[in-house]
Design brief:
This protein has about 160 residues and is α+β, with helices and mostly antiparallel strands. The protein has 5 helices and 5 strands.
Amino acid sequence: MSKKQPITLNINNRDHKIEVEPRKTLVDAIRDDCGQTGTHIGCEHGICGACTVLVDGEPVRSCLMFAVQADGKTIRTVEGLANGDELHPMQKAFMDHHGLQCGFCTPGFLMLAVGVLEREPDISDEDLLDVLSSNLCRCTGYQNIIKAVRAAAAEMRGPR
């Protein structure tokens, strides 16, 4: 067994001082050690995208990153999207456009879309579809997810 390492994970602007084995994944540390269970574990191979979080503003499959690699970085999970009781525009759009059914993939889609749109608000429709195709959903058929992300993108850009 490896010796545990002390690390600090800054999740949604709150420091979590924890000790982890070097092989512990970020998703397991977020859920098990920091109590942020909105990030879901899907395939554990980086394929489905359910575990997507933002690390220093970039979408990351947290099942493929070790917790020790995130030490001192800024992590944003789905719990960090809303501002108190006010939902993020992406969360509102998913509700308004029926972009979820079972909801298992939703946190990953929300974080992927927010991360991309915050970095590249004027992303082309073709590039946005390419990005969204990297996450998997077994329920919706994707059309409502795409509608929701397009609507949120327009709101996040603001009036022109």
